[in-house]
Specification:
It is a single chain. The chain is α/β, with parallel strands linked by helices. It has one domain (4-328): TIM Barrel (Alpha-Beta Barrel). The protein is built from eleven helices and 13 strands. Strands 1-5-6-7-10-11-12-13 form an eight-stranded parallel sheet. It has a three-stranded antiparallel sheet with strand order 2-3-4, with no helix packed on it. A hairpin with a 4-residue loop joins strand 2 (28-32) and strand 3. The longest helix has 20 residues, at 189-208. It is globular and about 55 Å long.
Length: 334
């Protein structure tokens, strides 16, 4: 079977000075330490160490071959979303990285494809950049799970998601700018606790607010990291909906019945968790995602699914090939 990894990240080797372009401070830039290592910076602050797999397409292809990955879909690290910036500056940033991403993919002979980013704080600019990016060759779009205090049920964000459905752009939703910073400033707890919570929060905003009732079924959205803590806590949500009217006020159906409205990736790193995810979401709603090439990603890409003793061969094929193909490469049907 062909194996398609739908959740990987990239950073170009270098990019123009965004602080100079915008006349504002504290933009991301890459500080190279050696041929293989660099530090992703935010102004003068160190954000994350990275390696050359982020920008070296030849290395990326070699590691894909090592792990028998036929195709990758890559997207920018969420630090580059720039939602907190002036919308014009964020739009310039989005165009810049969207074009750099396509340039990187152009040397991969079709094995590496990319999702665009957009200035989501301005819906008109976001829709405009989405259309431009799709016309240039992007497969879809990656967005953050919120813009400041505006969650996915915000009218403007619903408008953008509706536009994605209209133009046939699949959407990968990635958590970012996580909650609870002061209580999670050690041990990577922002990534281990807040990130899964952010994703569950966003899914529940779409379900409990009635947002899914306003969105077309042709919309293809996928939540990263296995949907965060959603699958494990769905029983709690259903129980609350059944017994508290304030939970079901805007949600006409049992929350668990909405799992056919979105997909998730497989980045859960545990066989039992993967089995639960499939049982909750349905086998046609889970796709291979590794979060390559970051340290919290799957280090041997695809191994969780391939080595599973509790998945059938048909289930493995669905996750590794069939579902990604249907989600990203087949036209939407209303």
């Amino acid at each position: 079977m062909a194996v398609i990894d739908i959740h990987t990240h990239f950073l170009p080797y270098q990019w123009p000075d965004l602080a100079e372009r915008s006349g504002t401070t504290d933009w991301p830039w890459l500080k190279h330490i050696s041929q293989d290592k660099a530090m992703l910076m935010v102004g003068e602050r160190e954000f994350r160490p990275v390696n050359s797999a982020c920008w070296d397409i030849e290395r990326r292809l070699q590691e894909m071959d090592r792990d028998q990955i036929d195709q990758q879909i890559m997207c920018a690290t969420p630090l580059l979303f720039a939602y907190q910036r002036d919308a014009v500056h964020a739009a310039d940033c989005a165009r810049l990285f969207n074009d750099l991403a396509l340039e990187m993919c152009s040397t991969s002979e079709g094995r590496i494809m990319t999702l665009a980013q957009v200035p989501l704080q301005d819906i008109d600019l976001a829709c405009k950049e989405l259309e431009r990016a799709m016309s240039c060759g992007h497969l879809g779009v990656q967005i953050g799970n919120h813009v400041g205090d505006r969650d996915l049920d915000d009218d403007g964000l619903i408008t953008f998601l509706h536009h994605c459905a209209d133009v046939g752009a699949p959407v990968l939703i990635h958590p970012w700018d996580m909650l609870g910073r002061k209580r999670m400033d050690r041990h990577m707890l922002q990534w281990l606790v807040a990130m899964p919570a952010e994703t569950q929060l966003s899914i529940l905003h779409l379900i409990l607010s009635g947002a899914f009732e306003r969105l077309p079924r042709s919309l293809k959205i996928c939540f990263a990291h296995g949907g965060g803590s959603f699958a494990f806590l769905l029983g709690r949500v259903d129980n609350a909906w059944q017994h508290r009217d304030i939970v079901r006020e805007h949600c006409p159906q049992l929350p668990s019945t909405y799992t056919d409205r979105f997909s998730v990736d497989s980045a859960v790193f545990d066989q039992g968790a993967l089995r639960l995810l499939i049982d909750v979401m349905g086998i046609d709603r889970v796709m291979l995602g590794t979060d390559y090439p970051f340290p919290l990603g799957e280090q041997k890409m695809g191994n969780l699914v391939r080595s599973s003793k509790i998945l059938s061969q048909a289930e493995k094929s669905s996750i590794l090939e069939d579902n990604p193909k249907s989600f990203f490469f087949k036209a939407n049907v209303s």
